[in-house]
Amino acid sequence: MNLHDIREDYSKQELSKSHCHTNPVEQFKIWLNEAMTAKVNEPTAMNIATVDADNRPSSRMVLLKEVNDNGFVFFSNYDSRKGRALATNPHISIVFFWPELERQVRIEGVVEKLDEASSDEYFASRPYTSRIGAWASEQSQVITDKSVIVKRAALFGVKHPISVPRPPHWGGYLVRADAVEFWQGRPSRLHDRIRYRLDGDQWLIERLAP
User: Is residue 56 annotated as part of the catalytic site, yes or no?
Assistant: First the structure.
């Protein structure tokens, strides 16, 4: 296999400033709805990148759970590697990639913890086994083998046989964006890139070279 020979020529759609909503969150909702309607694989999956206290970047896939006027919401263990990084450096970047639509969205901004009531509400909506798992997993910590997690899950299952409260180390994050870029694949690598950049309280819309 020669990796140099692997390439796709994109041509399904195009993107212009005149066709974009004035607000990037609303434009994102349009694209997300189109991704869901097209039944792309994991439309809410996003790669989030953080930087820790040693200036080491790391990234991982998580699921978007809400998008509203304030920003983008996901949930996690606050004591995980990403949680510790965000506690030190709240800046974050997010990437959505929908290859079926030849589209990508990049989001940059700052995170803040979601209010406890909202975290409680979402946690209560999760399946019972997922709620137990949030207690059982000391996310990102080294363990000897998987039996450690299985035993901890069993113990917390006995402790919380019916009602499972939200762990204090688990909850939501709200990403307040200050830059959002919409990328539409085009032929000959002349891709369409439209960036929204926050200037004070106004969004500036710019076209970027591919």
Answer: no
163: left (phi over 0), alpha (psi -120 to 50) or beta: beta
Domain that holds residue 195: 13-127+168-208
CATH number, position 173: 2.30.110.10
Helix (H) or strand (E) holding 133: helix 128-136
User: Which is catalytic among the residues 56, 60, 186, 189?
Assistant: 189
Q: What is the pTM of this model?
A: 0.93
- Domain count for the chain, please give it: 1
Per-residue pLDDT of the chain (210 residues; tens, 9 = 90+): 899 988 888 999 999 999 999 999 999 999 999 999 999 999 999 999 999 999 999 999 999 999 999 999 999 999 999 999 999 999 999 999 999 999 999 999 999 999 999 999 999 999 999 999 999 999 999 999 999 999 999 999 999 999 999 999 999 999 999 999 999 999 999 999 999 999 999 999 999 999
Residue 150 in any domain: the answer is no
